[in-house]
Amino acid sequence: MKRTFFIIVACLLGTVCALAQNKDEVLLTVGNEAVSRYEFEQIYLKNSQMMADTDKKSIEEYLDLFIVYKLKVADAKANGLHNTNEFKQELATYRKQLVQPHLVDKQTQEKLLKEAHERLKLEVNASHILISIPEDATAEDTLNLFNKTIKIRERILAGEPFESVARATSDDPSVKVNNGNLGYFTAFQMVYPFESAAYSTPVGEISMPIRSRFGYHIVKVNDKRPSPGQVKVAHIMIASPPDATEEHKAQAKHLADSVYSLVLANEDFTRLAKQFSQDPGTAQNGGELPWFGMRQMPPQFEKAAFSMCTPGEVSKPIQTQFGWHIIRLVDKRGVGTFEEMAPELKSRLARDERGRVSQNVFIDQLKNKFGFEVDSNALQTMQLLLDSSYYDGMWEMPSMYKNQFVFSFANKKHTLSELAQVIKQNRNRYINMPFSVIVDRCFNELVTEKVLAQEEERLINENREIKYLLKEYYDGILLFEVMDQNVWSRSTRDEEGLKEFYNNNILDYSWEQRVYVQRYSSANKRTIRRAKRYTTSRRGANATEEKLVNRYISKGDTLLQIQQLILAPDDILIQGFAAWEDNVSETKLVDGRYSFIKYQRTVKNDPIPLDEIRGRVIADYQEFLEKEWVESLRKKYPVNINQEVYQKIISNLN
User: Fold this and answer.
1) Lesser CB count within 10 Å: N end or C end of the chain?
2) What's the CATH class of domain 511-606?
């Protein structure tokens, strides 16, 4: 998390208008690398937008920061950090994330977003019959299963009860308990083809067979109703799993009823949740759960939560498979407007299979635009070339077929050799599948990869903002690694260097004034009274802690505890200590223990022990290491500023 956050901040991500009028003039060189005016201006503007007015820097100040940034990146490259596999993999991941939003058909995406928003306003209750399609099914197998599904549908249309046919034919294991009824659901809660069939089929009617990744579905729509929206609740859970003993179950029920009585007596719900709830994920925040909709909680919990209407309303204890719950309604909300929900919808769309719909449309558009052609005979040849040795990992492509053309795109020809490589890489996914299925799937995977890679390259080369944003990612990853090596990890590993830095700057780590005291405490009032009398006597004034503690153990009293404390002069424990008799405070009872404080001495400019301020010293040591490192970089990598271009920047940005 720290790494990702650092890189995002280093890249200064934000939305700015591209400065189209700027040319890629060279502003400065750091070592052997030229840095453009455009790159500096873009990052400067992003930084200015993100900073408060009080934090904003002049162009001159920011240019110096920018040069330091580039010096560190130059050092990272000089040390080969950009050639590591870890760097290349991380950059590839960022590159994918950066271009992914551009690899979809915007019109289709907008249509899917609005469709999902409309569907979220409605819940559908549907039953289904599933006819599974094996992963290794051939086209012939799939056709036979489709015909089987059609015949099942005809039985229902002829009058057989849906539930009876479902129990007799459905491959969904849950049919044994629900007769095929899946209850109420809304958008994003079922696979997309099934969801579409349910929303498009009128109440009481039976859909045609619908294909999903699970197989063919026949959908019967039982009801449709407005969505109840979402609720936010807090709960107190008393754990009682199904396999608990009868005695434990009875104890859990009794405790739940007792806590509920306290709620009814207007005891604070948040305090009760912290004290009694056995849900470790929510107890400390008063039992509060995130917003949730239907089908996201156990049915009993969901029913109780949605049945409440007024914020603050509390349910009776209800039982789920986890135990007993006392639920308090915090708030309810309906489905938001499209504008309000757009960010959430985009995020859910990207994770849902419907997100591939807009990408598939985009890929088809690219195929048409760049003249995609395929040789179907080559695909048949590949099927014939595969044999049983493939399943054992021993198969090799005959050399005479390696350069045979299989498809072309954007004036680039791709061969059976490339397809064979994909097929071999996916061997473990396709063990014992028919060769026709293997070739078809791997071919589609190869085409998708090449088409999208072509578009990624075009975007990065032609879209200036993407190109420079990727450059910022590139530099940001390197910056993190080189900072970690030279500053962060070094400061935590170099114990001797840390101690030396602490000792050299000891005056910066001293208390202005501190009071040394001893705190005596015991659960027994008699022990404390005797200890106080003895420590203020002439005999006990200089007694060691060990002697004092053993003195009372030997007399059969409760154990005496002595703590050495170093306090600030205004600490509440020693307020008014100058008026204490014999420099000893009055005795107090706190949390069941009796205690008194004995003043020892006051010290000025006493060093704070390193272990007590290690975090602060490490932070200062890091600043020291970075300053030394940057000074060495300025000597190592010459920096030349193009003053003419720099003056243009000042004129443009002021």
Assistant:
1) N
2) alpha beta
